[in-house]
Amino acid sequence: MCQYGAVNQLVNSLELRAAEIFKVLGDPVRFRLHLRIAGSRAAICVCDLGELGVSQPTVSHHLRKLREAGLVDCERRGTWVYYWALPEALEPVQELGLFSWSPATAIPSASSAPPQAAQRPNLLKRCGDGPDA
């Protein structure tokens, strides 16, 4: 085996894990659930996750998928179940350099709003594809 074989295997395993993460978070309901759980400063009660536009059994199904993927964990406290995100689960995505993402910064706020159209650079011109190229 060449010296790069081990590196290729590591990259391939990271790619596979990242693909699994994207597959799980590719569902809009699961993505919203993960955002809400990860955006919470502490464990969040399932009763506080808010309206998702789906039935309670569907929410339970998606929470189970997030747990099975290792993106969240939970604990039963009396009648309720509390969830928290496992940030290290996103490391394969970050290690591949695909993007640096934190659920706490993923929820837009007034200070992180995109610039107005007049403030945006002309992407065609910047990329050299516009009429001035």
Automatic annotation (TrEMBL):
Sorted UniProt keywords: DNA-binding, Transcription, Transcription regulation
Matches recorded under Pfam families: HTH_5
Name of the protein this chain belongs to: DNA-binding transcriptional ArsR family regulator
Keyword match Hydrolase: no
Region (Disordered): 107-133
Native source species: Naumannella halotolerans
SMART domains: HTH_ARSR
UniProt cross-references to PROSITE patterns, sorted A to Z: HTH_ARSR_2
Example GO molecular function: DNA-binding transcription factor activity
Residue ranges of every copy of the HTH arsR-type domain listed in the record: 10-105
PANTHER family in UniProt: ARSENICAL RESISTANCE OPERON REPRESSOR (PTHR33154:SF18), TRANSCRIPTIONAL REGULATOR, ARSR FAMILY (PTHR33154)
Compositional bias segments (type: Low complexity): 107-121
InterPro entries: ArsR-like_HTH (IPR011991), HTH_ArsR_DNA-bd_dom (IPR001845), HTH_MetalResp_TranReg (IPR051081), WH-like_DNA-bd_sf (IPR036388), WH_DNA-bd_sf (IPR036390)
